[in-house]
Amino acid sequence: MSVSPASGRTVLVTGGGSGIGRAMAAAFAAQGDRVVVADLSAETAGKTVAEIEAAGGTATAVQVDVADEASVAAMVETAVSTYGGLNVLCNNAGVLDSMGLLEDISLAEWQRTLGVNLTGVFLVARAALPHLLASKGSIINTASEAGIRGGCGGPSYTASKHGVVGLTRSIAYMYREQGLRCNAICPGGVNTNIVQGAMSEDGFGRLSGVLMNAGAMAEPEQMASVAVFLASDAASYVNGAIMPVDGGWFAG
């Protein structure tokens, strides 16, 4: 089944400055979508936009803190005012936790991880919702293998990604009759800077052990291609799907 080409859609990608988000932004831009690249780092968002424009695409950079309601509102307003609407949201921004045991997790770490990974997804989806309903658009949330099993992350990361899975299903069910679709991808091990950096730091030994069971690491582009499919007409009847993209890790 082929993925139908884009036709001037506007796509908002959070966490678009690096890793999976950067690959998503590039993939949507390559098929003709106009992409709003949002990231906590204005510098990395700008680099992604520069790469897209150098390849002939159209993109705009926005600095955002997805855990801050006012910052999220400003991001969505920029997307809509720049391109006249919103068709696809890739809710991708996220952080790792320290992979510690429950007794080692501070309240500050718990709140920070859930603030970005779960509250951030809620805030962005809620702010984008009126525009996505108007366009009968699509939301693709980046969950994780840790959102569908218990041993792939620390307590706060695992809880946050399980929450993303539940929120995805809730949005899909509640808005299905209004033409809005919401799905989630659950990456396994992906070769990104944040993962490589974490594996080299003290306190992340468990992450290396977990990923040893994952098999070969995926590239960010392999996650992006699934997001492009889920946002396409080829996936028009796919709604509420929680899709492992892990090379078969979850099947074992």
TrEMBL record:
PROSITE patterns named among the record's database cross-references: ADH_SHORT (PS00061)
The record ties this protein, via CDD domains, to:
SDR_c
Please give the InterPro entries that the UniProt record associates with this protein: NAD(P)-bd_dom_sf, Sc_DH/Rdtase_CS, SDR_fam
Q: Which Gene3D superfamilies match?
A: NAD(P)-binding Rossmann-like Domain
Per the similarity annotation, which family is this? Answer: Belongs to the short-chain dehydrogenases/reductases (SDR) family.
* Protein name per its UniProtKB record: SDR family oxidoreductase
